[in-house]
Write a structure and sequence with these properties.
Layout lengths: L2 E4 L6 E3 L1 H9 L5 H10 L1 H7 L6 H12 L5 H9 L2 E4 L3 H10 L3 E6 L3 H11 L7 E4 H4 L6 H11 L6 E5 L2 H9 L3 E4 L3 H15 L2
Parallel strand pairs: 1-4, 1-6, 4-5, 6-7
Antiparallel strand pairs: 2-3
Helix pairs in contact: 1-5, 3-4
């Protein structure tokens, strides 16, 4: 075990994606329904894979695609309200993992607006050795290419990588390329999973 790769939203930060987007769209969706809608949405896919780099233009396209009548400024507030603060214990737990010699990476479906906000407000990414943001690498989880990109960039064997995500579909995709992957929703779960795995090595 050498590399720890974590998802961002729902794992190391609080996420208010469902609440914010449902308010913006003005409709209530089941989680799976909203996930499918988000992934099919051309404007979000282009923004989160780096094809669309202008935040204002993304907002305009999003409003048009969903036929939403709120203003661009209101939509910006809803969109920025998706991401929350680092989860309790994140900095302490990941600092400890780093001191133990683990190489830390983040793999996230995200965008420049959210990354900039989290960097400026919380300095969220200071502990990570590698940052794999979808808008920079051009792939979205659960695309197989996203995981292959990580493996190649880390110059590691898939079996040396331990990946953590709150979405089961992303976990399954990581496993399909040989990565050890686990579904978790907190830094504490990451730590306990690693602790139990290391404990098992010596039993």
């Amino acid at each position: 075990m050498k590399h720890i790769v974590t998802d961002m939203g729902g794992v190391i930060i609080d996420l208010y994606w469902i609440e914010s987007i449902q308010k913006a769209i003005g409709k209530t969706y089941e989680l799976d329904e909203l996930v499918q809608l988000w992934h099919k949405c051309k404007s979000t896919r282009e923004y989160e894979t780096g094809k669309q780099k202008d935040f204002d233009e993304f907002i305009r396209q999003f409003l048009s695609e969903f036929k939403i009548t709120i203003t661009q400024e209101e939509m910006k507030q809803y969109f920025m309200g998706v991401v929350g603060a680092p989860k309790d214990g994140f900095f302490e737990i990941f600092s400890g993992l780093k001191k133990k010699g683990y190489i830390l990476s983040v793999l996230s479906n995200t965008n420049p607006a959210h990354v900039n906000f989290l960097t400026e407000k919380y300095d969220l990414f200071r502990l990570f050795d590698h940052k794999f943001f979808s808008h920079e690498i051009g792939y979205l989880k659960p695309q197989k290419e996203a995981y292959e990109y990580v493996v190649t960039s880390l110059k590691a064997k898939p079996s040396d990588i331990f990946f953590f995500d709150d979405a089961n579909v992303n976990v399954k995709a990581a496993v399909s390329v040989g990565i050890n992957a686990f579904q978790v929703t907190s830094p504490q779960e990451i730590y306990s999973t690693i602790f139990n795995l290391r404990k098992g090595e010596y039993n």
